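Model the whole thing, not chain by chain.
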Amino acid sequence: MRREPPRGLADYAPLAFPAIMLVVFFVVPFSTMIAVSFFQRDAAGFYSPAFTLDNYERFLSAFFGNVLGFSIMLAVMVAVVCVLVAFPFTYLLSQASRRVQIVWLVAILSVLSLSEVIIGFAWSTLFSRTAGITNLLVMAGLMGEARALTPGFGAVLTAMVYQALPYTVLVLYPAIVRRDPTLLEAARTLGASPLRAFLNVVVPALRNTIVATLIMVFVFALGSYLLPQILGRPQHWTLSVLITDQAIYQSNMPFAAAMAVFLVLMSLALVGLTLLVGGRREAQA
Amino acid sequence: MSGLELQDVTKRFGDFTAVDGVSLKIPQGTFVCMLGPSGCGKTTLLRMIAGLEEPTGGAIVLDGGDITPIPTHKRDFGMVFQSLALFPHLNVGDNIAYPLRIRGIAKAEQRRRVDELLAMIHLKGYGDRPVSRLSGGQRQRVAIARALALSPRLFLLDEPLSALDAKLREAMQVELRQLQQQLGVTTIVVTHDQREAMTMADMVVVMGEGRIRQAAPPVQIYRKPADAFVADFIGSTNLIPLGRDGTLLGRPAPGLALTVGADGGKLSIRPEDVQLVAPGAGEFTGTVTFVRDLGGTIETFVDVGGTPVTAVATPRERPGFKPGDAVGVTLPLQSCVVLKG
């Protein structure tokens, strides 16, 4: 089908609704946040309009730099672990019968109905000394005595992976189901064992999907602020925790806005870098 | 025996029997075309030979050794898939080198072999191109080169040319046949295109409903079809019912009476063997119902006492019959084949 270029104003009319939605729900709030990030905090009230770079200046310290670095590192790890777990899982799921697939997908979807708070407290119970999974290991004779696994980095990572995994599976599933099954068969007739064929044909052929999924989970994990507080120590708190702290408990909206802008910029930069690297490999292939 | 032997190979999917006790001997170096309508089990049979499906019963024997339990990746076969299955993330050269890389062959040797294969498929210098920048015919050749990279013991192709347009397909058929003769590799092609089978094969295997209906050289399949299914599937034919008493079109046919069983049968005669002569001069008399003049050939549809008979000839051989003309029809005995059922 050949598309005619739009001519009159009427041809652009279908764009009006999405454009309005985008302006109302994205452009306006985001611009407000950027504007506020240059405002001055008013200790007595809330904030007063001004133009100051103090908020950004304050952010450029070792402390906030560390927190930003940790937030990004945590989000990257969550993304990588999620894809490492979800990819083989979804692949095996795609080979199961239709009924088995439906049961699994419904189960995975039901995890999405759990709130972050419930997930956090469920894991904090599971990782506790008195009622946690270490008691099972003790019973099995694998461990001397029960101990608490929370608070700690492992607990934060586990719960965040648990929370993001359903999304990962649901994003990977369509691409994996629709893949060309003869690629794997061709590799096998050419002499590759099933595992080898999977690693050097199936995975690379789905590289774009994998990169897109990594980015999605990364962005998703970057905004997490409840789980690090429930399951982590203060050094495991992400930038989102500090933003909430500044905005709500310290009433320093301009500084919170500045941190949020910084976080958005950093994640945009990382996503751009990933796409750039992916694109260059594409050009070589 | 040197070559491939199928011994009572069967494949069932639940209640459905896709391949039903197929036995066949294919001598080393033969070009075999498996031909049949869709759903006749030909692709399933090929996939079992490749090891991609496990037979429910029977054995597949290559050069005297039973290969049925050997997994696909240890069979050293080359296979071309209908979808071609070129690896999208690898360039042309890396696609062809894949089976060599898997076996840990030295890089320099890989490169030498890839260049050799690229020359063989007339794509010299295409090694660094991405697969997505090739035309349909070029992809086809890359898939063939990749399957041949290791000098396979068996060369299997599943509907390899079905994605190409008619002209290119005919050219590729000739090319594929020449390549196979040059390499002397035992080759099995699955196709539903009987022209393709006639062009390439030493042996045509016609399959229907999971069984082999006939396995013979192409000309024999065409001239001496084993049953009505084969006669009808290979080329077009006139299937004329024979009377119980050995009559043909209401007349006694002395030469045929002996071969027809009690339950009657059918006579198959190719349209180009039917002779149309002046009214009264032939064995039978009929009326022309329709003439299709295709330029190169003329198809004449004749009604002989209620039975339709089609005759094909070149314009030089047969000038001017019009619909409604009375015409004499002769069916030369030596061109007729009597089929049971």
